[in-house]
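Annotated sample (chain length 261).
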Amino acid sequence: MFSRLRSDIRCILERDPAARSAWEVLTLYPGLHAVVLHRAAHWCWTHGLRWVGRAISQASRWLTGIEIHPGAKVGERVFFDHAMGVVVGETAEIGDGCTIYQGVTLGGTSLYKGTKRHPTLGRDVVVSAGAKVLGGFTVGDGAKIGSNAVVIKPVPAGATAVGIPARIILPKGDAAHAGDAAMAAPRFSAYGITPDDDPLSQAMRGLIDHAANQEQQIALLWQALEALSERVRVPRGDCVPDEAARETGFEADRLTQLVGK
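Output written by the structure step:
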């Protein structure tokens, strides 16, 4: 029990730069208190003491602002950072090393008892502030859920989910080995912030780059036409437009800056 508590304290010291000492974490961090109280509530729940488990869960909610159903499964080194207003449903499962921020809901969309109604988080998942993960699906190891995202479908390992409803961004490189890469070298990302985490911006940048490339190709074609007209001695105006007609208002660099790099 004490070794597990030490592991929980160590993971908070590693992920929260505001944590100054183990004593501060032990006495003043509601995320740690919620995890410790949940373990007692979960033990009662799994040993037939359902009312006692719910009572401990309710007391933990009053003390910490974090509501974890006693039936939920919470792994080791789970960090509820700030975490006011977090709700974790009965059949939810949170894997080892996960980080969950304030306002997160791990909720269910089914009313049938005895079924898997709430999500399963793999290892080292980051669920950012205000995100809602709704349904009995799995979020893969090392995945990231962006702030205020509404996730209603499975998220592959190592991927990022952003938006309403959430859009899935697969990691760069070989998607088939994304899970292995996430497991081999998991890197913590505070609030799930990663570069290029907006799929719409990625699509816009791709369109801008494509348009800029087309403009360059058209300019090369005009140069070839000019050279050809000089060779065959065709009057320049007959096959090549004047400079005013060839001017363009397309500003690729400015549009890229507006979309965001």
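Annotation: Confidence is low (pLDDT under 50) at residues 181-185.
Annotation: The two ends are 47 Å apart (CA to CA).
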